[in-house]
Amino acid sequence: MTFQRGNDLDERSYARHEGPDRTGMSNGRKPAKIASSTPGTVQAANGRGSTERGRDAEQTREDILSVATEEFAEKGLSGARIDQIAERTSTSKRMIYYYFGGKDGLYRAVLQREYTRIRYAEMAIGLERFAPEDALARLVRATFDSHIERPTFVRLVMNENIHHAEHLKRVEGLSRLNEAMIDSLSDILRRGAKNGVFRRGIDPVDLHINITALCFYTVSNRYTFREGFGRDLWDRRDARKRRAQVADIILRWCAAG
Fold first, then answer.
1. Domain total for the chain?
2. pLDDT by residue (tens digit) across 168-213?
3. What distance in Å separates the CA atoms of residue 138 and residue 46, rounded to the nearest whole number?
4. Within a 13 Å sphere around the CA of 204, how many CA atoms are in the beta-carbon half?
5. What is the chain's percent helix, strand, coil content, to nearest 5?
6. Is-contact 233 222, C-beta < 8 A?
C-alpha cells in the first residue's frame, strides 16, 4: 500500500489513475508442512503444489477485485456487468460466483477492500509519534493524498450513497476501523488541548467530517468545477496549493485562543 507522508506531492499523485495496486488482503493460508522422511519427498511436492495453487487462487481473487473496483466506480452497481469483469480478468462468471457469491457479494468485497485500505493508510502514519499540531497536519495531508490517489474510492462512496449505504451496512469490520480512526483523532485533540495548542471541546467526529469534506470535494467535483470555473482541481500546482490550504483551515479551526 503506497502512501505519501511528506509535505510535497509526488507527481504520481496527479497522473491518470490506472486502478488500485494489488496489495489486497491475504486469505491467511499457510504453506503445507513438509516432512523430512523419504515419503516426504512426495509430500513436499504436493505441499508446493498446494501452496502455488493457493497463491494462484489469491492472485485471481485480487485480479477480480481490482477490475471490479474500476467497473463499479465507473458504472455503479447497476451498470457494472459480471460478464465484462470476467472477460477483463480472463476468468468466468462461475469463478466470480464461487469466490464472491454473486454481484452484490463482489460489490461488498470491493467496498470492504477500499475502505480498509484508506483506514490502514491513516494508521500507517503512526500519529502518536508526533506532536499534536504536526500529527494533525500529517493526517490532513495524507487524507488529501489518499483521495487524489484513489478517485475510485470517492466514486464508490458516491455510488453507495445513492443506495443509502445498504451494502455498506453488511461490510464486516468497518465499524471497528472507523472507531480506531476516531480514537486516534481523540488522542490528537486531547494532547493538543493539554499542551494548549488546540481548544477544548472539539468533537472528533466533527473533525473527521471537516477533513473528509474538504479532501473529498477535490475529487468528487473535479469535472463540474473545471467546466464552471475553468480550473482543474487536479492541476499539480493548484492541487499542491489546495492541499496546504486544507491543512491550514483544519489547524486554524482547532487552534486555541
1. 1
2. 999 988 889 899 999 999 999 999 999 999 999 999 999 999 999 9
3. 48
4. 17
5. 70, 0, 30
6. yes
Assigned C-alpha cell, 109: 468485497
**d(Cα 163, Cα 215) in Å, to the nearest integer?**
22
Q: How far apart are alpha carbons 178 and 183 in whole angstroms?
A: 9
Could you tell me if residue 2 is inside a domain? no
- Residue 3 is assigned to a structural domain of this protein: no
Total Cβ atoms within 10 A of residue 198: 24
Domain span at residue 123 reads: 21-26+35-254
Helix/strand/coil (H, E, C) string of 113-125? HHHHHHHHHHHCC
* Domain contains 214: yes
Whether the Cβ atoms of residue 233 and residue 239 lie closer than 8 Å to each other:
yes
Residue 18 amino acid letter: E
Amino acid at 136: L
What's the one-letter identity of residue 117? Answer: R
Is 4 a domain residue?
Answer: no
One-letter identity of residue 1: M
- Measured in whole angstroms, the distance separating CA 204 from the mean position of its chain's CA atoms is 20
List the grid coordinates of 122. 491513516
CA distances from 247 to 12, 52, 135 (A): 21, 46, 11
Return the HEC string of 220-246: HCHHHHHHHHCCCCCCHHHHHHHHHHH
Quick: pLDDT tens for 74-132: 999 999 999 999 999 989 999 999 999 999 999 999 999 999 998 888 888 889 999 99
- Which residue's entry shows cell 466514486? 155
CATH label of the domain that carries residue 162: 1.10.357.10
